[in-house]
Amino acid sequence: MSITKQVTALAVGLGLVTLSACGSGDGGSGSAADSKTVTLVSHDSWAVSKGVLAAFEKQSGYTVKVLKDGDAGQAVNKAILTKDNPQGDVFFGVDNTLLSRALDNGLFQSYEVKDADAILPAYRTDADKHRVTPIDTGDICVNYDKAWFSEHKLTPPESFDDLVKPAYKDLLVTENASTSSPGLGFLLGSAARYGDDGWAGYWTKLKANGVKVVDGWEQAYNEEFSGSAGGKKAKADRPLVVSYASSPPAEVIFADPKPTTAPTGVATGTCFRQIEYAGLLSNAGNSKGGKALLDFLVGKAFQEDMPLNMFVYPVRGGAKVPAEFTEFGPQAKDPETMDPAKIAEHRDQWVKSWTSLVLK
Fold it and tell me: How far apart are CA 25 and CA 167, in angstroms?
């Protein structure tokens, strides 16, 4: 998923140092001649604490190289094109909106991680073939500007249904479903909520109610949304934005001084759950090292390190999350979900129809 990329951009908007991944951005896959190097291929959002990665390298004897390949869609497509001669051993960053594309193209080989039973059942996918392993999860949700709604004496929306009400006309900005991960997730959430025959009618109402569509998250959140630090600087005028449930804690964590309450909230009835996976690449040069790396990614140390580095939730049962997450950005209790097989069947046509309906 692109949660970290979005939060990194949020940090840039606040004038802070961006999160960065450990490891080198160059170099190919580990090979028989270099069996102590294991290469992780990922989207740009990969991040881990240096100490946590160093501990794995010391314990395992492997040196980890990280190759970042752009946003999630770009990275997946490049991995598919190079699958016969992969750039690395493990790929991290394909989510449930794009999973079928990777599996149908034979991107991964089978491997069941050592701690597979520790992964919460709700996140397990492809359990019979073990081609991918769940690593993290997050919710795409509408965020709202608390101060704006307080000043206008208007109750913030809570659900998809609320967003089409006249009271919220011209207040929402979202991302293009054909170019943005949260934009696509919001479209899939509406399809899950209203069904194959109802989502288009919902978007007709949303368009009539003044929804604004921009290319990507950074523009929507940091330039159009009045509740973000970046939006305040840009004098943004939209108090509703499609973002993540982890955006409010990010606003708190990156602020200086830190506020006692988050300036933004989440409309929990608008959430769509993303799950992000990793897998051992077909034709990996260092399969043994790749398996050790996958074991590490579901281990307790990495799972508890993820939230403040990638602003996602762990999938391992019992893994602790920071207090800021539970206080300011708890997971939705009843998010919209969709089987990856259904996403695979309808995604391209839904995006095409959405484009014709909303952008033309």
Answer: 48
Which of helix, strand or coil describes residue 193? helix
Burial state string for 29-43 with b = 16 or more CB within 10 A and e = fewer than 16: bbeeebeebbbbbbb
Q: How far apart (Å, rounded) are the C-alpha atoms in residues 317 and 118?
A: 6
> Quick one: which of 5, 4, 6 has its CA closest to 241?
6
175 within 8 A of 244, measured Cβ to Cβ? no
Name the average pLDDT for the chain.
Answer: 90
- 181 contacts 9 by C-beta, under 8 angstroms: no
CA distances to 142, 240, 246, 327 from 330, rounded to whole Å, are 14, 19, 8, 7
Which band of pLDDT confidence, cut at 50, 70 and 90, is reported for residue 3?
A: low
> What pTM does this model have?
0.83
Contacts of the segment 12-19: beta carbons below 8 A, 24+ positions apart: 13/222, 13/228, 13/229, 13/230, 13/233, 14/229, 14/230, 14/254, 14/255, 14/256, 16/254, 19/47, 19/309, 19/310
DSSP string covering 194-227, please? H-TTTHHHHHHHHHHTT-EEESSHHHIIIIIBTT
Q: Where are the alpha helices (DSSP H) in 82-180?
A: 99-104, 146-151, 160-163
Q: Using CA atoms, how far apart are residues 215 and 16, in angstroms rounded to an integer?
A: 24
Question: Contact at 8 Å (CB) between 68 and 309?
Answer: no
Tell me: the pLDDT tens digits for 49-68? 999 999 999 999 999 999 99
- Bridge partners (DSSP) of residue 296 are none
Q: Which residues are registered as beta bridge partners of 90? A: 40, 280
Q: Is 342 exposed, middle or buried (0-12, 13-18, 19+ CB in 10 A)?
A: middle
Instruction: State both tokens at 60.
Output: 């395992």
